[in-house]
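Appendix B, example 12.
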Amino acid sequence: MSKLFAKVRQLHDRFFGLVSYLQSPLLLLLRLYFGWQLAQSGWGKLHHLSGVAEYFGTLGLPMPAQMAVFIACVEFFGGIFLAVGLASRITGLVLTVNMIMAYVFGDHEALFSFISDPDKFVAAAPFAFLVVALLVLIFGAGKLSLDTALSFFLGSSRAKQANSVSA
């Protein structure tokens, strides 16, 4: 019985050791896709600020014109930072707050249906961006990011040690 247990444990460790190599490429794909989508959304908002400000006014947001510029910049620059993996955790935090506010002000019906009708919550526009922002906030951008490159080239001993251990 102990030999069987040892063999199962060995297979488990080998399998998940191989799967763990997919963490950084998966984070890269998520960051690139959703960062690009978010940057495009921000770019569109920047080019239609009057319409965005009008919409924000209907939501009852204070200073809708200034808020439109701020949110457009958060989405545009946050999307770019997310895609390339720059200031990842701060970007993840800012985008998480932004997406939660998008639920609160723009789609509070979906937000309040979190328990009663989860399909409505998941189908709302901010959901996928919120999940990716949370993933980057919690796990970081991964090894395939500007954060990792900058910390390596700027002499962060922790980054060099992490790269030498995993290589």
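Residues 25-142 form one domain. The chain has a mean pLDDT of 91.
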